Amino acid sequence: MGTIVVVLLLSTAALQSSPPDTTPNSTPPVHLPVERAAVGPPDTLLGQQSSGVAYERLSDALRYDRVQGLSLGLGYRLGVPGMRFGNLFATVRYGLSDDRVTGRLSFVLDAPGGGRLALGGYREVADVDVFSPGHTMGNTLDALFVAHDNADYMLAEGGAASLEIPLRSGLDLTLSARVERETGAARKAKSAINDFLGGDGIFPPNPPVDEGTFAGGSARVSHAEGIRWALTADVLGGEGRTTGRLFGDLRAQVGDAAGATLRLKAGAGTSPTLRQMEFRLGGPATVRGFEYGARRGQAFWAAQLDLTPFAARLRPVAFIDAGQTGRLEDLFSSTAFAGAGVGVSFFGGALRLDLSHPLTPDSGGKVRFDIVVQGVR
Question: Residue 81: which CATH number?
Fold first, then answer.
């Protein structure tokens, strides 16, 4: 019961402080967060530094996944002497299911004009899906209460660097590089809360990765005004294997509280494809109604359409999705996934409860329930 209270308090804080997501989420898995500090003592407009308990992202404090179960983190920020806009962030966390201690040390330099440089070393359970990150408040709630963990994970140990450069208003370039040891992370957790609520609390096994020491890099251009889009090229190589990819997503919205949102995602990689670099199809980020990662492949595409007929504090949402994945040369001849459903949106899209069901292929799938935080509508 204490766990439920803690999660609800944190999620309520997130809903009160964070607007619905309005940016593409195709961020390369650098394992070094480049987002702005979410929780901690504020700096002044003159760059004055403050030290104390702080987190680079809200999910560093508490999160839940099928590898570590409930994991608790403690973060601290320390201003760098002589650097008005430089900070050190240290985070250590402990997973209750896998008894694993992980941590991260990052140096972050925020330029007054909007650029950001981040350098760091880490040993952490990292999510690998560029379109469906697992370490978010939404996925934590979905995993904890519904036993739906919409991400894949691996243990990453190494160092990374990222540089965020504003090109013009609404247009940013992000460059990143990393060298790390990547190993598989076995499923260790079971959702006792979902079991108590009538489910079985059992997660699917976390899939394996191609293990070894790898070096990788990426370049991402993102546009966050009007029609929002992002385009990323990345590469990962080591142990005699290399995979390069090109992928992107686009989001167009008609209307504000009422209207429609269309999201398109696609990507292709070289062959042979490292398992951690495969694209996943199925789940809330691609085709709803199907289990996350129901199919994986070298290339994929997915389209999602959300419709809201009217604006209200509590408003209905209808949606339909479709997508394919497989080898690049066989992509459009592979079996297509299609799913549809309805949901109820609260607080302007900050919280959604969705019911979805597969349309094709006819697999006899059950109605799927998901908790969505910061939905598109």
Answer: 2.40.160.50
